[in-house]
Design a protein that fits this description.
The protein is an alpha+beta fold and about 525 residues long. The chain is about 40% helix and about 20% strand. The chain is elongated. The relative contact order is 0.06.
């Protein structure tokens, strides 16, 4: 197992998605799907495989790529698209080139509704695709029973019906059709049923739920419990099944989708190529920033490169913002709702995951990089003159007003340096006087460091509010360190940050790494002081 694979296994998320195994020459040799990418991909390397083919596969894996999605159903659809596009040699079980089926409402007089695997651009409406053929059969069965949708292939034009060309079939006699072929059902009545079916396929199931619920109650009153139970099962499936796919949408033409994210040094761009609603290319790449390129410039560069690389001629490009480039005959779209917005969200999700994975991998190889990133954030958030590579935090404690003690914990490069921790027994203060205790501890600590020529911190954190902070400042002033070392206080209840000579507290974002580090310092000082 290569070092790159080991690092990928550490950062791959516990999310549904598809993964690709790539050999040394760069060819994809296997595409798989998983409810949990981390567990599934790791399993290839955590056990001995009985199947010799699997052993050979694992032996030839040189690199791993993955795409995260929102649901398990999306993994089936994406896997199908990728296998068709990439044709990996180890995916023999899926080389039948099957496509997932749709439900179509035909553009015709008395429209038929049926399952199909082909999309014909004749004005018909297509819904899906569905990964479960059984579920489609059950839906169509419900449509026939509840809405009496015809299943015949007769050409029901007004002239053919008026001429008496057709006779009703068995479906009419078993009450699964109302006989439009003989003019026994009007087009208006039939189309009302089709409209309700359309709403159900869009996910608006309230109408059919009400219909089935009424039939269930009727069967229950007639003590026909078995039939009532069957209807209940259909009711539950209708309500829960219609989970709209993002990977294959109802967009029946070609579009490109680009997601964007960046950091201080790099821009990350995700590209999804959508053909007839199916994602058949997914690629994330990185640009190293050289000058002061804007996001609009970088996204424009990415669009040009990806469209040339994959030979895309799509006339519509979905983007999070308008890039700094105009393409002839191409329209940019920033979607606000619907299928296009969901495709953009999928692209953004993948580009963010790529960025996070890249960062985690770099920080695993170089732990100091993570510390530098966090401490630069601390410097920026607290407006410090320098990066606080060494931070010291103080906490006072006593038992029922006696035996006053204080604790000092030290963090170097954002990590505890436990050998440098110190306990202080308060010597000059009688009773519970936290302010006087803090003055004593700060004076003793930094007078000694100055006398010994020991390293001083770039930041001092006081566990307490404004009063505790002022006490610490008084001692720093007496020994000539005030202004040379940054000092802040953190109040316990509301996580308020106090600065010297500023009565108004400062609030950090509760999810910021700066606040998390300060809280870690405070909690560690409290733990060590007890």
């Amino acid at each position: 197992m290569t070092e790159e694979i080991q690092n990928t296994l550490k950062i791959i998320p516990h999310s549904p998605g598809c993964y690709q195994f790539i050999e040394k020459k760069g060819k994809v040799i296997y595409v798989g799907k998983a409810k949990d990418l981390k567990k599934r991909v790791s399993s290839y390397f955590n056990k001995n495989h009985e199947n010799p083919k699997t052993r050979v596969l694992v032996k030839n894996i040189y690199q791993i790529k993955y795409i995260v999605v929102d649901s398990e159903e999306d993994t089936f659809l994406l896997e199908n698209n990728l296998i068709k596009e990439l044709k990996p040699r180890y995916n023999v079980m899926l080389k039948d080139d099957k496509t997932y089926p749709y439900i179509v409402i035909k553009n015709e007089y008395f429209p038929r509704i049926y399952k199909t695997r082909k999309i014909v651009k004749d004005g018909s409406q297509y819904f899906g695709p569905y990964s479960s053929v059984q579920a489609i059969k059950l839906l169509l069965d419900i449509f026939e029973k509840v809405y009496k949708i015809r299943t015949c292939r007769l050409n029901l034009t007004p002239d053919n019906i008026a001429s008496g060309k057709f006779n009703v079939c068995l479906e009419y006699h078993i009450k699964r059709c109302k006989g439009p072929c003989e003019g026994l059902q009007s087009l208006e009545d039939y189309n009302k049923n089709v409209e309700e079916v359309t709403e159900i396929l869009k996910g608006n199931v309230s109408a059919i739920e009400k219909k089935i619920e009424q039939e269930m109650l009727q069967y229950a009153e007639e003590l026909r419990f078995e039939e009532a139970q069957q209807l209940k099962e259909k009711y539950v499936l209708i309500r829960n099944f219609r989970e709209k796919s993002l990977i294959v949408s109802n967009i029946n033409y070609n579009i490109d989708v680009f997601g964007y994210d960046d950091d201080e040094n790099s821009a990350y761009i995700n590209y999804l190529h959508v053909v007839n609603g199916a994602v058949n290319q997914a690629y994330t790449f990185e640009y190293k920033k050289k000058l002061e390129e804007t996001p609009e410039e970088l996204l424009g560069m990415g669009i040009i490169e990806m469209r040339q690389r994959f030979g895309s001629e799509s006339k519509e490009i979905i983007v999070p913002f308008i890039p700094d480039i105009t393409l002839h005959g191409v329209e940019y779209t920033i979607p606000q709702r619907g299928d296009k917005k969901k495709l953009l969200e999928l692209s953004q999700k993948n580009v963010k995951q790529h960025k996070i994975g890249k960062l985690k991998k770099a920080e695993m190889l170089n732990p100091d990089q993570r510390a530098a990133r966090i401490l630069k954030a601390v410097q920026k958030d607290l407006q410090l003159k320098e990066i606080p590579w060494r931070i010291e935090c103080f906490d006072n404690s006593n038992i029922q007003g006696t035996n006053a003690v204080a604790a000092c914990v030290v963090f170097k490069k954002a990590k505890p340096a436990k050998k440098d921790y110190r306990h202080f027994i308060i010597k000059t203060v009688t009773g519970a006087d936290d302010y006087a205790s803090m003055r004593e501890v700060i004076h003793r600590r930094y007078s000694r460091l100055l006398n010994e020529g020991s390293p001083l911190p770039q930041l001092i954190v006081i566990d307490g509010g404004k009063g505790q902070l002022n006490a610490a400042v008084e001692s720093l002033q007496k020994i000539g360190l005030y202004g040379k070392i940054a000092v802040i206080g953190i109040a316990k209840r509301l996580e308020e940050i106090y600065f010297p000579n500023d009565p108004v507290p400062f609030y950090l974002d509760k999810n910021s790494e700066t606040l998390k580090l300060i809280q870690q310092l405070r909690d560690e000082a409290h733990r060590f002081g007890i």
